[in-house]
Amino acid sequence: MSSAIRTEHLSKIYPGSASRTPALADLTLDVPAGRVFGVIGRNGAGKTTFVRIAATQLELTSGRAEVLGYDVMTQARDVRVRIACVPQESRPLYFLNVEEVVYLYLKLRGLDHAEARRRTTEALDELSLTEYRRRPVQRLSGGLRRRTLCAMVLASDADVLFLDEPTTGLDPIARRQVWDAIRRATKEQRTILLTTHYLDEAEALSARLALFERGRLALSGTPEDLRARVRYPFRVTIQGAYSAEELTSYGRLTPIEGGALVFAREPEARELARRALERGQRVSMGPVTLEDIFLEVVGRAIDEETPPAEAEA
Ligand SMILES: Nc1ncnc2c1ncn2[C@@H]1O[C@H](COP(=O)(O)OP(=O)(O)O)[C@@H](O)[C@H]1O
Ligand SMILES: [Mg+2]
Questions:
Q1: For residue 244, how far is its CA from the centre of ligand 2 (angstroms)?
Q2: How far is the CA of 195 from the centre of ligand 1 (A)?
Q3: Which of the following CATH numbers is that of domain 231-287: 3.40.50, 3.40.1130, 3.40.1800, 3.30.70?
Q4: How far is the CA of 51 from the centre of ligand 1 (A)?
Q5: Alpha-carbon separation of residue 289 from 120, 227, 256, 258 (angstroms)
Q6: Could you tell me if 156 and 109 are in contact, meaning their C-beta atoms sit under 8 angstroms apart?
Q7: What is the Å distance from ligand 2's center to 184 Cα?
Q8: How far is the CA of 138 from the centre of ligand 1 (A)?
Q9: Is 24:11 a contact under the CB 8 Å cutoff?
Q10: At how many degrees (to 10) do helices 142-155 and 172-187 cross?
Protein backbone atom coordinates (compact mmCIF):
# COMPACT_ATOMS: atom_id res chain seq x y z
CA MET A 1 0.00 0.00 0.00
CA SER A 2 1.43 3.41 -0.92
CA SER A 3 1.96 6.15 1.63
CA ALA A 4 0.04 9.40 1.71
CA ILE A 5 2.10 10.92 4.51
CA ARG A 6 5.40 9.69 5.81
CA THR A 7 7.64 11.14 8.48
CA GLU A 8 11.08 10.08 9.62
CA HIS A 9 12.51 11.20 12.95
CA LEU A 10 10.37 14.30 12.73
CA SER A 11 10.94 16.80 15.54
CA LYS A 12 9.58 20.26 16.20
CA ILE A 13 10.74 22.73 18.80
CA TYR A 14 8.88 26.03 18.62
CA PRO A 15 11.34 28.89 18.48
CA GLY A 16 11.30 30.86 21.69
CA SER A 17 9.54 28.11 23.61
CA ALA A 18 11.11 28.66 27.01
CA SER A 19 11.51 25.04 27.99
CA ARG A 20 12.85 23.83 24.63
CA THR A 21 10.58 20.82 25.11
CA PRO A 22 9.84 19.41 21.68
CA ALA A 23 6.23 19.68 20.52
CA LEU A 24 7.07 16.64 18.37
CA ALA A 25 9.94 14.32 19.16
CA ASP A 26 11.47 11.78 16.81
CA LEU A 27 8.20 10.90 15.18
CA THR A 28 8.38 8.20 12.53
CA LEU A 29 4.98 7.49 11.04
CA ASP A 30 3.47 6.13 7.86
CA VAL A 31 -0.05 7.08 6.85
CA PRO A 32 -1.31 4.74 4.09
CA ALA A 33 -3.19 6.29 1.18
CA GLY A 34 -6.92 6.04 0.67
CA ARG A 35 -8.13 5.60 4.23
CA VAL A 36 -9.01 7.58 7.33
CA PHE A 37 -6.04 7.84 9.65
CA GLY A 38 -6.95 9.02 13.14
CA VAL A 39 -4.51 10.89 15.34
CA ILE A 40 -5.57 10.93 18.95
CA GLY A 41 -4.00 12.45 22.02
CA ARG A 42 -4.64 14.83 24.85
CA ASN A 43 -4.43 18.60 24.55
CA GLY A 44 -0.85 19.58 23.79
CA ALA A 45 0.12 16.10 22.55
CA GLY A 46 1.31 17.55 19.24
CA LYS A 47 -1.60 16.73 16.89
CA THR A 48 -2.00 20.22 15.44
CA THR A 49 1.75 20.66 15.14
CA PHE A 50 1.89 17.46 13.10
CA VAL A 51 -0.97 18.57 10.83
CA ARG A 52 0.53 22.03 10.27
CA ILE A 53 3.92 20.60 9.34
CA ALA A 54 2.44 18.06 6.93
CA ALA A 55 0.21 20.77 5.43
CA THR A 56 3.32 22.98 4.88
CA GLN A 57 2.07 25.70 7.22
CA LEU A 58 4.85 25.26 9.74
CA GLU A 59 8.55 24.42 9.39
CA LEU A 60 9.92 21.33 11.00
CA THR A 61 13.01 21.47 13.21
CA SER A 62 14.64 18.18 12.20
CA GLY A 63 13.92 14.92 10.44
CA ARG A 64 11.76 14.82 7.34
CA ALA A 65 8.15 14.69 6.28
CA GLU A 66 6.64 13.97 2.91
CA VAL A 67 3.14 14.01 1.47
CA LEU A 68 2.43 11.81 -1.57
CA GLY A 69 6.17 11.51 -2.02
CA TYR A 70 6.86 15.27 -1.97
CA ASP A 71 9.07 16.76 0.69
CA VAL A 72 7.14 19.32 2.76
CA MET A 73 10.17 21.59 3.08
CA THR A 74 11.68 21.52 -0.42
CA GLN A 75 8.58 20.70 -2.49
CA ALA A 76 5.92 22.59 -0.59
CA ARG A 77 4.15 23.77 -3.76
CA ASP A 78 3.72 20.21 -4.99
CA VAL A 79 2.27 19.30 -1.62
CA ARG A 80 -0.09 22.28 -1.45
CA VAL A 81 -1.94 21.60 -4.68
CA ARG A 82 -2.72 18.08 -3.54
CA ILE A 83 -4.03 18.78 -0.05
CA ALA A 84 -6.89 20.57 1.65
CA CYS A 85 -7.02 21.46 5.29
CA VAL A 86 -9.57 22.35 7.97
CA PRO A 87 -7.37 24.02 10.53
CA GLN A 88 -8.23 23.76 14.20
CA GLU A 89 -8.65 27.53 14.52
CA SER A 90 -10.04 29.04 11.41
CA ARG A 91 -11.99 31.98 10.17
CA PRO A 92 -13.50 31.68 6.73
CA LEU A 93 -14.04 34.91 4.80
CA TYR A 94 -16.73 36.55 6.88
CA PHE A 95 -18.39 38.76 4.30
CA LEU A 96 -19.35 35.84 2.03
CA ASN A 97 -22.30 33.56 2.50
CA VAL A 98 -22.01 29.81 3.01
CA GLU A 99 -22.51 28.91 -0.63
CA GLU A 100 -20.11 31.59 -1.87
CA VAL A 101 -17.35 30.61 0.51
CA VAL A 102 -17.43 26.97 -0.58
CA TYR A 103 -17.71 27.88 -4.26
CA LEU A 104 -14.90 30.44 -4.08
CA TYR A 105 -12.62 27.97 -2.33
CA LEU A 106 -13.15 25.45 -5.14
CA LYS A 107 -12.63 28.11 -7.83
CA LEU A 108 -9.40 29.18 -6.16
CA ARG A 109 -8.28 25.58 -6.26
CA GLY A 110 -8.67 25.69 -10.02
CA LEU A 111 -11.99 23.92 -10.65
CA ASP A 112 -14.07 25.28 -13.50
CA HIS A 113 -17.39 27.01 -12.86
CA ALA A 114 -19.68 24.05 -13.57
CA GLU A 115 -17.64 21.60 -11.52
CA ALA A 116 -17.31 24.05 -8.62
CA ARG A 117 -21.07 24.65 -8.63
CA ARG A 118 -21.87 20.97 -8.74
CA ARG A 119 -19.52 20.12 -5.89
CA THR A 120 -20.74 23.07 -3.80
CA THR A 121 -24.38 21.99 -4.09
CA GLU A 122 -23.47 18.42 -3.28
CA ALA A 123 -21.37 19.30 -0.23
CA LEU A 124 -23.95 21.70 1.21
CA ASP A 125 -26.57 19.02 0.84
CA GLU A 126 -24.37 16.35 2.40
CA LEU A 127 -23.67 18.47 5.48
CA SER A 128 -27.28 19.75 5.70
CA LEU A 129 -26.18 23.29 5.01
CA THR A 130 -28.52 23.93 2.08
CA GLU A 131 -31.00 25.91 4.17
CA TYR A 132 -28.21 28.18 5.39
CA ARG A 133 -26.59 28.67 2.00
CA ARG A 134 -27.44 32.37 1.75
CA ARG A 135 -26.42 33.20 5.31
CA PRO A 136 -23.28 35.33 5.72
CA VAL A 137 -20.55 33.32 7.37
CA GLN A 138 -20.12 35.98 10.05
CA ARG A 139 -23.67 35.29 11.27
CA LEU A 140 -23.18 31.54 11.65
CA SER A 141 -22.96 29.80 14.99
CA GLY A 142 -19.63 28.13 15.75
CA GLY A 143 -21.01 24.72 14.84
CA LEU A 144 -22.37 25.81 11.45
CA ARG A 145 -19.10 27.56 10.72
CA ARG A 146 -17.14 24.36 11.35
CA ARG A 147 -19.55 22.47 9.12
CA THR A 148 -18.99 25.06 6.40
CA LEU A 149 -15.24 24.55 6.69
CA CYS A 150 -15.72 20.80 6.45
CA ALA A 151 -17.89 21.30 3.36
CA MET A 152 -15.13 23.35 1.70
CA VAL A 153 -12.49 20.73 2.28
CA LEU A 154 -14.63 17.69 1.54
CA ALA A 155 -15.92 19.29 -1.67
CA SER A 156 -12.39 19.88 -2.90
CA ASP A 157 -10.59 17.62 -5.34
CA ALA A 158 -7.58 17.23 -3.04
CA ASP A 159 -6.07 13.77 -2.56
CA VAL A 160 -5.15 14.29 1.06
CA LEU A 161 -7.51 16.02 3.47
CA PHE A 162 -6.46 17.26 6.87
CA LEU A 163 -9.27 17.61 9.38
CA ASP A 164 -8.01 18.97 12.68
CA GLU A 165 -10.71 18.35 15.27
CA PRO A 166 -13.47 18.85 12.72
CA THR A 167 -16.32 18.06 15.09
CA THR A 168 -15.29 19.97 18.19
CA GLY A 169 -18.23 22.11 19.24
CA LEU A 170 -20.77 20.35 17.03
CA ASP A 171 -23.99 18.90 18.37
CA PRO A 172 -24.42 15.12 18.09
CA ILE A 173 -26.48 15.30 14.89
CA ALA A 174 -24.05 17.63 13.15
CA ARG A 175 -21.20 15.36 14.24
CA ARG A 176 -22.87 12.40 12.55
CA GLN A 177 -23.31 14.40 9.37
CA VAL A 178 -19.59 15.17 9.33
CA TRP A 179 -18.86 11.47 9.96
CA ASP A 180 -21.04 10.46 7.03
CA ALA A 181 -19.36 12.99 4.77
CA ILE A 182 -15.94 11.71 5.85
CA ARG A 183 -16.97 8.13 5.13
CA ARG A 184 -18.18 9.11 1.69
CA ALA A 185 -14.94 10.95 0.97
CA THR A 186 -12.92 7.81 1.63
CA LYS A 187 -14.97 5.86 -0.87
CA GLU A 188 -13.32 8.15 -3.43
CA GLN A 189 -9.94 6.71 -2.39
CA ARG A 190 -8.88 9.89 -0.68
CA THR A 191 -6.72 10.00 2.39
CA ILE A 192 -8.10 11.74 5.42
CA LEU A 193 -5.93 12.64 8.35
CA LEU A 194 -8.31 13.24 11.20
CA THR A 195 -7.30 14.51 14.61
CA THR A 196 -9.79 14.27 17.39
CA HIS A 197 -10.04 13.96 21.10
CA TYR A 198 -13.32 12.11 20.78
CA LEU A 199 -12.22 8.51 20.99
CA ASP A 200 -15.58 7.14 19.84
CA GLU A 201 -15.18 9.23 16.69
CA ALA A 202 -11.64 8.03 16.09
CA GLU A 203 -12.77 4.44 16.58
CA ALA A 204 -15.82 4.78 14.34
CA LEU A 205 -13.97 6.32 11.42
CA SER A 206 -10.32 5.32 11.39
CA ALA A 207 -8.83 2.38 9.55
CA ARG A 208 -5.59 3.12 11.41
CA LEU A 209 -4.77 5.18 14.44
CA ALA A 210 -1.80 6.86 16.04
CA LEU A 211 -1.76 7.85 19.67
CA PHE A 212 0.41 10.88 20.44
CA GLU A 213 1.52 11.62 23.97
CA ARG A 214 3.77 14.58 24.71
CA GLY A 215 4.97 14.80 21.14
CA ARG A 216 5.85 11.14 20.90
CA LEU A 217 4.19 8.30 19.09
CA ALA A 218 2.92 6.10 21.91
CA LEU A 219 1.09 3.54 19.77
CA SER A 220 -0.04 3.10 16.18
CA GLY A 221 -1.78 0.59 13.97
CA THR A 222 -5.21 -0.74 13.15
CA PRO A 223 -7.70 -0.87 16.02
CA GLU A 224 -6.97 -4.62 16.24
CA ASP A 225 -3.22 -3.93 16.42
CA LEU A 226 -3.78 -1.53 19.30
CA ARG A 227 -5.91 -4.07 21.13
CA ALA A 228 -3.23 -6.70 20.68
CA ARG A 229 -0.72 -4.42 22.36
CA VAL A 230 -2.52 -3.99 25.66
CA ARG A 231 -2.22 -6.44 28.50
CA TYR A 232 -5.93 -7.06 28.86
CA PRO A 233 -7.75 -6.91 25.52
CA PHE A 234 -11.20 -7.81 26.86
CA ARG A 235 -13.66 -6.12 29.18
CA VAL A 236 -16.38 -7.83 31.19
CA THR A 237 -19.06 -5.87 33.04
CA ILE A 238 -21.03 -7.48 35.76
CA GLN A 239 -24.13 -5.95 37.34
CA GLY A 240 -24.86 -6.61 40.98
CA ALA A 241 -22.89 -7.70 44.02
CA TYR A 242 -19.51 -9.32 43.52
CA SER A 243 -16.49 -10.55 45.41
CA ALA A 244 -13.53 -8.29 44.70
CA GLU A 245 -11.16 -11.07 45.60
CA GLU A 246 -12.72 -13.42 43.09
CA LEU A 247 -12.84 -10.90 40.27
CA THR A 248 -9.26 -9.78 40.80
CA SER A 249 -8.14 -13.32 40.10
CA TYR A 250 -9.37 -12.90 36.50
CA GLY A 251 -7.73 -9.58 35.70
CA ARG A 252 -7.87 -5.93 36.65
CA LEU A 253 -10.95 -4.88 38.58
CA THR A 254 -12.58 -1.45 38.37
CA PRO A 255 -15.68 -0.87 40.46
CA ILE A 256 -18.46 0.88 38.52
CA GLU A 257 -21.96 2.12 39.29
CA GLY A 258 -23.98 -0.92 40.31
CA GLY A 259 -21.31 -3.51 39.64
CA ALA A 260 -17.84 -4.16 38.39
CA LEU A 261 -15.75 -3.90 35.26
CA VAL A 262 -12.97 -6.41 34.76
CA PHE A 263 -10.21 -6.16 32.17
CA ALA A 264 -8.86 -9.57 31.32
CA ARG A 265 -7.24 -11.75 28.70
CA GLU A 266 -9.65 -13.65 26.49
CA PRO A 267 -9.75 -17.05 28.27
CA GLU A 268 -10.21 -15.45 31.69
CA ALA A 269 -12.82 -13.06 30.33
CA ARG A 270 -14.83 -15.97 28.89
CA GLU A 271 -14.52 -17.96 32.07
CA LEU A 272 -15.59 -15.04 34.22
CA ALA A 273 -18.56 -14.27 31.97
CA ARG A 274 -19.64 -17.92 32.05
CA ARG A 275 -19.46 -18.10 35.86
CA ALA A 276 -21.36 -14.86 36.30
CA LEU A 277 -24.08 -16.05 33.92
CA GLU A 278 -24.39 -19.30 35.87
CA ARG A 279 -24.97 -17.24 38.98
CA GLY A 280 -27.74 -15.40 37.14
CA GLN A 281 -25.93 -12.05 37.00
CA ARG A 282 -26.24 -9.59 34.14
CA VAL A 283 -23.04 -9.74 32.15
CA SER A 284 -21.63 -8.19 29.04
CA MET A 285 -18.32 -8.97 27.45
CA GLY A 286 -16.43 -7.50 24.52
CA PRO A 287 -13.11 -6.22 23.24
CA VAL A 288 -11.69 -3.18 25.02
CA THR A 289 -12.66 0.22 23.63
CA LEU A 290 -10.23 2.80 22.38
CA GLU A 291 -10.90 4.68 25.60
CA ASP A 292 -9.77 1.68 27.66
CA ILE A 293 -6.61 1.40 25.55
CA PHE A 294 -5.88 5.09 25.92
CA LEU A 295 -6.23 4.90 29.67
CA GLU A 296 -3.93 1.93 29.90
CA VAL A 297 -1.21 3.35 27.63
CA VAL A 298 -1.23 6.96 28.79
CA GLY A 299 -2.22 6.28 32.38
CA ARG A 300 -4.99 8.85 32.40
CA ALA A 301 -8.09 9.84 30.49
CA ILE A 302 -7.83 11.85 27.30
CA ASP A 303 -9.56 14.91 28.76
CA GLU A 304 -7.74 14.86 32.08
CA GLU A 305 -5.57 17.93 32.63
CA THR A 306 -1.82 17.56 32.99
CA PRO A 307 -0.90 18.74 36.50
CA PRO A 308 0.77 22.21 36.26
CA ALA A 309 4.15 21.02 37.57
CA GLU A 310 4.30 18.45 34.79
CA ALA A 311 3.08 20.81 32.12
CA GLU A 312 6.03 23.10 32.81
CA ALA A 313 8.60 20.31 32.88
N1 LIG B 1 2.86 28.54 18.22
C2 LIG B 1 3.37 27.89 19.28
N3 LIG B 1 4.42 28.37 19.97
C4 LIG B 1 4.96 27.70 21.02
N5 LIG B 1 4.48 26.51 21.46
C6 LIG B 1 3.43 25.97 20.83
C7 LIG B 1 2.83 26.63 19.70
N8 LIG B 1 1.80 25.85 19.26
C9 LIG B 1 1.78 24.77 20.06
N10 LIG B 1 2.75 24.83 21.00
C11 LIG B 1 3.05 23.82 22.03
O12 LIG B 1 3.36 22.61 21.37
C13 LIG B 1 2.78 21.49 22.05
C14 LIG B 1 1.88 20.72 21.10
O15 LIG B 1 0.76 21.52 20.78
P16 LIG B 1 -0.32 21.12 19.70
O17 LIG B 1 0.36 20.61 18.50
O18 LIG B 1 -1.24 22.28 19.53
O19 LIG B 1 -1.07 19.92 20.42
P20 LIG B 1 -2.56 19.32 20.21
O21 LIG B 1 -3.05 19.77 18.89
O22 LIG B 1 -2.38 17.85 20.33
O23 LIG B 1 -3.39 19.86 21.33
C24 LIG B 1 2.07 22.05 23.25
O25 LIG B 1 2.92 21.96 24.37
C26 LIG B 1 1.84 23.49 22.88
O27 LIG B 1 1.79 24.30 24.03
MG1 LIG C 1 -4.80 20.70 18.32
A1: 40
A2: 14
A3: 3.30.70
A4: 11
A5: 37, 8, 16, 20
A6: yes
A7: 24
A8: 27
A9: yes
A10: 10
3-state secondary structure of 241: coil
For the chain, the structural domain boundaries read 3-227, 231-287
- Quote the pLDDT of residue 229: 87
User: In the CATH scheme, what architecture does the domain 3-227 have?
Assistant: 3-Layer(aba) Sandwich (3.40)
Q: What angle do CA 234, 235, 240 make, to 5 degrees?
A: 150
Whole-number CA gyration radius for the chain: 22
Q: What was the pLDDT predicted at 313?
A: 40
Q: What is the pLDDT along the chain (313 residues), one digit of tens a residue?
A: 699 999 999 999 998 877 678 999 999 999 999 999 999 999 999 999 999 999 999 999 999 999 999 999 999 999 999 999 987 766 666 689 999 999 999 999 999 999 999 999 999 999 999 999 999 998 888 888 888 999 999 999 999 999 999 998 888 888 998 898 898 888 888 999 999 989 999 999 999 999 999 999 999 999 989 988 889 999 999 998 889 999 999 999 999 999 999 999 999 999 999 999 999 999 999 999 999 999 888 887 888 776 555 544 4
User: Can you give the pTM of this predicted structure?
Assistant: 0.89
Ligand 1, residue 88: give the atom nearest the CA.
21
Residues with CB under 6 A from ligand 1: 14, 17, 23, 41, 43-49
Shortest-distance Cα residue to atom 2 of ligand 1: 14
Nearest CA to ligand 1 atom 3: 14
Q: Which of 11, 12, 17 to mutate to test the pocket of ligand 1 (most atoms within 8 A of CB)?
A: 17
Closest Cα to atom 16 of ligand 1: 46
Q: Which residue has a Cα nearest atom 7 of ligand 1? A: 14
Alpha-carbon distance of 298 to 212, in angstroms, equals 9
Closest ligand to the CA of 168? 2
Identical topology for domains 3-227 and 231-287: no
